């Protein structure tokens, strides 16, 4: 990759790594409950969906074979993804029987209050299904395929993995600190970063987001199941 292309790659990837977190500060914290927050949230999701396409196909002007949907590597990645997702879910459930669970349920009222404020309290199950199945796919496309996939071409894959995972966890920290004290928010965000590392490894080894997506989907289903018992206990 020539020097100009490297600079262009950094120019494209740095906003991708930072904008979701910066936006979350505004729509989930500073302007929470304001109509502007909803608009900013959807603009951020629009950016998440289209920025990788603009960067990849319009600026770099190349087609990536990883988009070949019928390739066998996609189906071969599903079982390893299901295994890691199930392990993550099991760790989550077991964690509820530790002091982690005490913290989760102690601050459950904040989660319930935020669910009512954001309007998904009465639509929790459809919201949970959307988040688990579709939003997780969007995040894998964005954070694994684009962010990590671009970073690993610019720096060592291990460093790329760590940076991509930290960037992935950063906007989760903004959300989690609205629910929990900072110490617990940092702990849960670090757990998200570990998940990001695992899913980056899936992508690195399998060259497809299929396995990472299934793993992420199962993890999100576990989170939303726990959330249901917290909100509606």
How does this structure look, described?
The chain is mainly α and 233 residues long. It has a domain at 77-231. It has ten helices and no strands. Helix 1 (3-30) runs parallel beside helix 8 (157-176), helix 7 (124-154) packs antiparallel against helix 10 (210-231) and helix 9 runs antiparallel to helix 10. The longest helix is centred in the middle third of the chain and has 31 residues, at 124-154. The mean pLDDT is 90.
Form type: globular
User: Which spans have pLDDT < 50 for at least 5 consecutive residues?
Assistant: none
Order of helices and strands: HHHHHHHHHH
Alpha carbon gyration radius = 18 Å
Termini separation comes to 55 Å
The total beta strand count reads: 0
What structural category do the secondary elements indicate? mainly alpha
Query: How many alpha or pi helices?
Result: 10
- Helix fraction, binned, reads over 70%
Average pLDDT for all residues? 90
List keywords for this structure.
mainly alpha, 0% strand, single chain, 233 residues, globular
Topology:
Layout: H1 3-30, H2 35-59, H3 72-76, H4 78-95, H5 99-106, H6 108-118, H7 124-154, H8 157-176, H9 182-206, H10 210-231
Helix pairs in contact: 1-2, 1-7, 1-8, 2-7, 4-9, 4-10, 7-8, 7-9, 7-10, 8-9, 9-10
What can be said about this structure in brief?
The chain has 233 residues and is mainly α.
